[in-house]
Request: fold
Amino acid sequence: MGIVGMIITGIGVLFLLLGNFGILRLPDVYNRIQAGTKCTTFGAFFTIVGIGILEPNWFWKCLLIAAFVLITNPISSHAIARASKIIGVLLCDKSVIDKTEEFKNEKGV
Reply:
């Protein structure tokens, strides 16, 4: 089980590393949030589950923590992106469609 745990932890570390490149390369806050959230969610999940496999006494605790990360990380990034939009952080010039404009017109925000 040690090899499997190390492989899963390595996959998690790889996701976290690739997420850093996305944050550095993408043009605006909304794209960065999307890249960072996906990679940190999967990276943290695989890393925590891998550690749970490496340490069998911690497995259920690690699984509970990983489930918490899977639930809360996307919700928190959505809240940050929505707050950014509300305070007026602009999209990149290369962005083609802004679906939130339709929402603003319907809700009167």
In short: Residues 2-107 form one domain. DSSP finds four helices and no strands in the chain. Residues 38 and 103 are 24 Å apart (CA to CA).
